[in-house]
Structures are given as structure tokens and as C-alpha cells.
Specification:
It contains three helices and eight strands; from the N terminus they run βααββββββαβ. The chain has about 140 residues and is of the alpha+beta class. α1 runs antiparallel to α2.
Length: about 140
């Protein structure tokens, strides 16, 4: 199975993650003792955002975005049959290529290295031969 991961996905540093978790737990505890539901909810959302992992891949299914946290998992798929256009845009540093995938009125911008973006376009042509691939004209 061909699978390509975007190059702009970065993991949060462990020190940042631990500091954020400590702050989120502090907000939850403070909200409990101060009887402030808003502070506790913000703390819960803060902790949830730090433990969630988002991964975007392009494979034979289409564009698959998966969200993984301890308490839930979600998978969002843009199938190839729904994707109508792909627009290519070279980054200003000329070291990465942004591919804009269009599905109806929506679009997703995924960034790939110069060595992998052609493989992604080949996969798109293989999965949907009539797909429109063009350069972005600004």
C-alpha cells in the first residue's frame, strides 16, 4: 500500500507537552476549588489538545486524517472519487511543494518534500485518471 505523509507534521516537544499538561491540570484543580466551571472546562480542553495526535496521509483511499487521543479516535477520509482538482504551489524557499486538494468548495493544503510530491501526483493519476492537476498562478 502506497502511503505518503506530509512533511509539515511536527510533534510537540516533551518539555512543552509536560508544561502544558501541568498547566491544564492546574486549571482543572483551580476551577474545582474556586467553583468555576469555565476554568475547569478550559483546563480539560487544554489537556485534550495536548494529548491528541493528528496524522495526515495520502494513500489509495484518498486523504486520510486521523485524530488519536486516549479517549477517542476519529478518522476523516477524502476519497479520490470526491477530489476534483490538485493545484501545485512551490514554497518561497523552493524546498517544498504545497498541493491544494479540492473537493467541491473545500480545499486542503498538504505540504510535501520535492522528492515525494511527484509520487503523490502519480498516485492521484493512478487512482483517478481524470483528475485536474495544475500549477497555482498568483
Amino acid at each position: 500500500m502506497k502511503e505518503f505523509t506530509t512533511s509539515d507534521q511536527k510533534d510537540i516537544k516533551n518539555t512543552t507537552r509536560y508544561a502544558g499538561l501541568i498547566f491544564g491540570v492546574f486549571l482543572i484543580i483551580s476551577g474545582y476549588f474556586r467553583r468555576s466551571i469555565y476554568m475547569a472546562v478550559i483546563g480539560i480542553m487544554f489537556v485534550a489538545a495536548l494529548i491528541m495526535v493528528k496524522k495526515v496521509v495520502v494513500n489509495e483511499e484518498g486523504i486520510v486524517t486521523s485524530y488519536d487521543a486516549f479517549f477517542f479516535k476519529k478518522k476523516d477520509v477524502w476519497e479520490w472519487k470526491d477530489i476534483t482538482d490538485i493545484h501545485k504551489q512551490l514554497s518561497p524557499k523552493k524546498d517544498q511543494m504545497a498541493l491544494h486538494f479540492a473537493k467541491g468548495m473545500m480545499a486542503k493544503r498538504l505540504i510535501f518534500g520535492l522528492d515525494t510530491y511527484e509520487k503523490v501526483l502519480d498516485l492521484a493519476r493512478e487512482m483517478k485518471p481524470e483528475i485536474n492537476i495544475a500549477d497555482v498562478d498568483w
